[in-house]
Specification:
three-stranded mixed sheet; three-stranded antiparallel sheet; alpha+beta
Length: 171
Amino acid sequence: MLYIEKKKLLFTFAVFLLSLFLLLSAQQLYVKFVTFKPLLETFSQKEYVEHVNIKKEVNGTSIEIYLKDVDNLVDIYEDIQKTASTVLKGRPFVVKILNKPDKFIENIYNEEVQFIVFEGIETGEFTKMRLNLDQIEAKYNIEIAVFIDNENLYLKMKTDRSVYYKIIKRD
């Protein structure tokens, strides 16, 4: 009698594990084909997108976008937010604008520009910030564009070889 109970228990456990595996597989397929695929297709068709990666994270979907050279980073960022919100239909997401800058432009940002920008955000002296950025533009022969709205500061640095984007929250 004990032997039959063990068989039933093992069978029940095996069915449970198989059901759990099938449910998790179905969830992964749902995420891949219902969430990721439409996002990838939509962003791949945008003329400003060089490359896009989409990842599932604990807090929602992470959308990593590499941009081509764009003129107005604010408009592009707003379009990315609106597009993601429409495709994801209210589900949580985070947009990350990623870069592949060369070392020259990355060093200029790390060693000089970031300090000027964060000081401008902290003090609110954006005119002074712009004057300091103008000096860096002349010193290194690069283009620096800054856009500001109520939420973010949008920075674009450009040389003839590379473009660097940075979006900084204005908390």
